[in-house]
Specification:
73 residues, mainly alpha, elongated
Length: 73
């Protein structure tokens, strides 16, 4: 014996209010965080080919991080 099923009707375009459309906007940080993470990972990969033994020399990534911290703080 099969159970009866109900079909839902999709809302028409006229029923969608302006608040529904406005609530689907992204915050500024939503695309910025993945882009920042991608850039940092790209920097890590770009510097990995220059692997040297520890000579006391500061790496390029550390220099960039220090400059960023000086600019922010």
């Amino acid at each position: 014996m099969s159970a009866p099923t109900r079909t839902r009707s999709l809302p028409s375009a006229r029923r969608v209010s302006a608040t529904t459309v406005a609530s689907t906007r992204l915050h500024w940080w939503a695309p910025a965080l993945p882009a920042l993470a991608f850039g940092l990972l790209l920097l890590l990969l770009a510097g990995s080919g220059e692997g040297h033994a520890a000579t006391g020399e500061v790496s390029g990534l550390v220099q960039v991080a220090e400059q960023f911290l000086r600019a922010v703080g």
